[in-house]
Structures
1.
Amino acid sequence: MDIQTLFLTLQALRLPIQTDEHELHRTVQEFLTSRGITYEHECTIAPHCRIDFLIGTIGLEIKRGYPQKASVMNQLSRYAACTQISGLILMSEHTLRLPAFLNGKPLYQLSLARLWGIAL
């Protein structure tokens, strides 16, 4: 599955408002499984690099609350530097201004508020 197809598939996900990141992970796992999408959860892709979901060669990272842009960029840049990653999707509660590519790899962002049906 290519990154654009996965991104469009994830946009169909309608989540209840979550208060716990672990519950959010479980909901995403159920969604991926229901679509027949194979994944690895909490996958170590390099020393000190464990991504929330690895779907083929696409990394999916989930952030709740108000993540600090510098911290998120640092984390995503480490993931993008890994050879087994072909692209990244950040699913975050609040939208961050991020580049379209990191290390030449596509970076997509999906808003949890949008998936919750909330216009912010």
2.
Amino acid sequence: MKNDSMKTKTAKLMAEAIRYDRGDARRIQHFVKVHDLAAAIGILEGLDEKTQRILETAAILHDIGIHISEKKYGSGAGHYQEIEGPAEAERLLRGLGGYPEDEIERVKYLIGHHHTYHEIQGLDYQILVEADFLVNLYEDSSDAQAVASARERIFKTAAGRRFLDDMFVEEL
């Protein structure tokens, strides 16, 4: 996979992640939406190619720890996902091959922190959190107060705020 273009590599990872979550259409739909929004925000915010690749990889795999967490702890809560997700992501990425060590480590870091909203370090981290919030606010049928609170507390990028405002305009 070393010579694959970014799009091909992302498509292969997406296919493997879908296979991993086989039979769980809700979670598959979730990570596909998070990926697409994160990819768009990253492009609009001008991420360099490497950071964009890391962001998109992490967005696809951000919730990979849910199934293990549910089995191990009886809960898929964010804290447990952060504990279990990085090792599972590493296993999957190494199985696919072609991912540089520093990128695997950053993806693991992002997965291990994507439910930690204080001290966000890096635009890739910020965008992953924003994309996940965009999808979660919709999937959870969040009210106007929750949307406004998320906008104030979480959203920092211009593209992320624009997407939030456009998606939830009647709630603001």
3.
Amino acid sequence: MGADTAFQKGMHITLTGNLGSGKSTICRILENEYGKEIYSTGKVQRAIAQEMGISVLEMNQLMCKDHKYDHLIDDTTAKISRENPDKPIVFDSRLAWNFVEKSFKVFLSVNLSVAAERVFNDNRGNVESYTTVEDAKRQLSLRAETEDVRYKELYGLDYFDFSNYNLVLDSTYCAPQVLAKLLIAQEAAYEKELAAGKNPKVRLLISPKRLGEEMGEADFSKERLYPEGIVTVRKSEEDFCVVSGQEIVAEAVKEGMPFVMAAM
């Protein structure tokens, strides 16, 4: 099979990211507006927790002791991807990027405080409930730590290593509809590069606001959503900070661009 044929068929999308980053909302948009078929392992995990009468956090802790639940979810994900190579499937899954053979691997990143506000204001039922925003922040942080440890022990994977993904997309200050449109455009660009025999690099798109810049409303109607050039960043305690390329961030703020292209 030639590269052109593979490009025409397209590939699956695997979507993961920080808790509270908006994965489920974006999946609904991809399903309703772009004709994608959604496979969500989060729903499977929540259903198992509900059947057992425990919280999602307790479910994660249980999965640390009994890996049959992990393997059940992961084996099912791999099977669906193998049996449906030509279907436009989006896998809303923590680790589908590792188990789906060929996919456009997307990680949604979000500021922890913003994520806590989102999940606190969502109606997620008794399985996932919080008393305050600070409680939501604490639980989200603990869940992320628990999952990170489990994935390293079970598979030797660093879930938060951005080099695992093709696109890291900041969802903190961007509407889900815009993120979905940008994701589709980036996936098309990625496939086009593959078809041309290139090896696409990881694209990390971050809002200048997450880099500590004050700015007004970004203009998402612009033809370009980020300036030319790469901003080097590193992880701070809760977010990112600029190592080099501050002038590129300043250009984005001046032009009202919602993102900068970054590297770590």
